[in-house]
Automatic annotation (TrEMBL), chain A:
Residue spans crossing the bilayer: none
Name the record gives this protein: SKP1-like protein
GO terms, biological process: jasmonic acid mediated signaling pathway; protein ubiquitination; SCF-dependent proteasomal ubiquitin-dependent protein catabolic process
Species this protein is from: Erythranthe guttata (Yellow monkey flower)
Pfam family for this entry, one: Skp1_POZ
Pathway involvement of the protein, from the record: Protein modification; protein ubiquitination
Gene3D superfamilies, sorted: Potassium Channel Kv1.1, Chain A (3.30.710.10)
Role noted for this protein: Involved in ubiquitination and subsequent proteasomal degradation of target proteins. Together with CUL1, RBX1 and a F-box protein, it forms a SCF E3 ubiquitin ligase complex. The functional specificity of this complex depends on the type of F-box protein. In the SCF complex, it serves as an adapter that links the F-box protein to CUL1.
Any Gene Ontology CC annotation: cytoplasm
Automatic annotation (TrEMBL), chain B:
PROSITE patterns linked to this entry: FBOX
Protein name: F-box domain-containing protein
Native source organism of the sequence: Erythranthe guttata
Upper taxonomic lineage: Eukaryota, Viridiplantae, Streptophyta, Embryophyta, Tracheophyta
NCBIfam families: F_box_assoc_1
Domain of life (superkingdom): Eukaryota
InterPro entries given in the database record: F-box-assoc_dom_typ1 (IPR006527), F-box-assoc_interact_dom (IPR017451), F-box-like_dom_sf (IPR036047), F-box_dom (IPR001810), SCF_F-box_component (IPR050796)
Domain F-box: 1-43
């Protein structure tokens, strides 16, 4: 590999909406999916990433560059991740967890999952159904009974602000 | 709207506190069965333990309170869903479950409001003439059998010289929901809150530590720390961060040793060493929990003050928690979905649970410890 001879190698990634991105190989191989491609020698041309759109890929690449610039200091990496995710909304985070899963980037996946959980913590049942696209399959009586079982958990729930 | 595959939803949900998860049972039937499932309860618990999240203090004084460890933002009352007298009757926590030492005893998950009153277990033997009874309990998790177990020992003591005459012991299995008589404990018990101390007149030190395995029901001796000072100190056992701790207190000093690797004699290290004026005279110091970053230990000083002990600088920092009772009992407790309502549920293997070997090993170590090093509390 070129990286071993000291010359930085650049990879070209292609999103599913045909945007092209250049990224240093050293940053891109944070993705196990991409690393495997590089190791198998299939990273010569353009790497198509069929499950990631351009907007999400741009964000993931920002993360790859940011985190790989930090030397081995877990605390600094953690605070970079926190800052990187701090202003992202639910939809962006959901796209990102899908991308991180596809790209096999476990540290990003764990951080995004935890961030989504943090966003959800005080949300209502209705909010979760809308955001996750889940159909309510309870009858009104069943739903009332399920809620009644743990009535105390409905205290302190945020009023929805996304309608 | 996000359409996330179920395994990613599970990864997200395992990060949530118990209260939120119980609320989200109402989202849809599939979410209810996921959240109520034994496998998810284990996944959630393991995630909380490996990331040091969802951790609380259970505080008892007049009433029971919970304090979130990450924020220490105040003591919030919890109302037990059953009758109880005082919180001194609440034992150590294990996987988010505590034992309430009433008669009959109760297993209680304070964060899911789930509880189980144990069946009656009469002491099978009348106290011999001239003796009175003392009863102690131990509680822990048997990882091999995936079972929560309670041990009850009733000791008969001579009315005049208080020496131990005999004892009867029984063990409760949550899986079978029944008590069973076991062999008496082969040494006299020393009752002291939070510990099970054994005096062995035959040993050079005068004191040894004994363990009891919930899995094999065997008693076994444990090594004391090399160079521990015993003379003039009161010794008790505790658990901090899943490690066995030996607390040595004297009038002016408190020294806490921890066994970094359970059962390995060489792994005892001196964790905390405090003397007046960092602590007050005659303070009884109990280690509660490590900070999230692992650089500090929270100590309960004489059931009146909480202090952080910095492991690097060896200095103490007082903690103010709003709403804390004047005198209290504190126990670290993780929030968990561990369910007590059933008993004897079938065990379904989940391959996801085994994907991360390192986490698995941490869990195993912890469970072994809990199954062996359980505490006996009066």
């Amino acid at each position: 590999m070129a990286a071993e001879t000291g010359t930085p190698t650049t990879l070209t990634l292609k999103s599913n909406d045909d945007e092209l991105f250049s990224v240093a190989e050293s940053a891109a191989i944070l993705s196990v999916t991409i690393r495997n491609m590089v190791e198998d020698g299939c990273a010569g041309g353009v790497i198509p990433l069929d499950n990631v759109d351009g907007k999400t890929l741009a964000s993931v690449i920002t993360y790859m560059n940011g985190i790989s610039a930090i030397p081995a200091d877990e605390e600094k990496k953690k605070s970079y991740r926190d800052k990187f995710l701090s202003d992202k909304d639910f939809e962006t985070l959901a796209d990102m967890v899908l991308a991180a899963n596809y790209l096999n980037m476990s540290c990003l996946m764990d951080a995004v999952s935890a961030k989504i959980a943090q966003v959800m913590e005080k949300k209502s049942v209705g909010w979760v159904r809308r955001k996750f696209g889940i159909e309510n399959d309870y009858t009104p009586e069943e739903e009332a009974a399920v809620k009644e079982e743990h009535k105390w958990t409905f205290e302190g729930v945020e009023t929805d602000d996304d309608n | 709207m996000a359409d996330l595959p179920p395994e990613l939803v599970e990864d997200i949900l395992r990060c949530l506190p118990v209260k939120t998860l119980k609320r989200f049972r109402a989202v849809a039937k599939s979410w209810r069965s996921l959240i109520d499932g034994d496998d998810f309860a284990k996944l959630h618990l393991r995630h909380s333990l490996t990331t040091n999240s969802n951790r609380n203090l259970i505080i008892g004084g007049i009433g029971v309170y919970t304090v979130a460890l990450d924020s220490l933002d105040g003591a919030h009352p919890i109302k037990p869903p059953f009758y109880y007298k005082t919180v001194d009757e609440i034992s150590n926590s294990c996987n988010g479950v505590v034992l309430v030492m009433s008669e009959p005893p109760i297993l209680w998950n304070p964060y899911s409001a789930d509880y189980k009153v144990l069946p009656d277990c009469p002491v099978e033997r009348a106290a011999p003439d001239g003796c009175y009874c003392m009863t102690g309990f131990g509680f822990g998790y048997d990882s091999r059998n995936d079972d929560y177990k309670v041990v009850r020992v009733t000791e008969f003591r001579h009315i005049i010289n208080h020496s131990s005459m005999a004892n009867v012991a029984s063990i409760y299995s949550h899986r079978s929901n029944s008590w069973r008589g076991i062999d008496p404990v082969p040494y006299p018990l020393t009752f002291s809150r939070g510990s099970w101390r054994v005096h062995d007149s035959g040993s050079v030190l005068g004191l040894i530590i004994m363990g009891f395995s919930l899995e094999t029901e065997m008693h076994y001796p444990m090594a004391m720390p090399d160079g521990v000072r015993v003379r003039g100190f009161v010794l008790t056992l505790d658990v901090v961060g899943d490690r066995l701790a030996l607390v040595c207190t004297s009038r002016y000093r408190a020294v806490i040793w921890v066994m970094e690797e359970y059962g390995v004699a060489d792994s005892w290290v001196e964790l905390v060493a405090l003397r007046c004026p960092a602590i007050e005279r005659n303070d009884f110091v109990t280690p509660l929990v490590y900070s999230k970053e692992g650089d500090r230990v929270l100590l309960n000083c004489d059931d009146k003050r909480l202090v952080w002990y910095d492991l690097r600088t060896k200095s103490v920092d007082y903690v103010t928690v709003k709403g804390l009772p004047f005198a209290f009992y504190a126990e670290a407790c993780v929030e968990s979905l561990v369910s007590l309502g059933g008993g004897g549920r079938g065990k379904i293997k989940n391959s996801k649970l085994e994907k991360d070997e390192r986490k698995e090993n941490i869990r195993r170590k912890r469970d072994d410890f809990l199954s062996k090093g359980f505490k006996l509390v009066l």
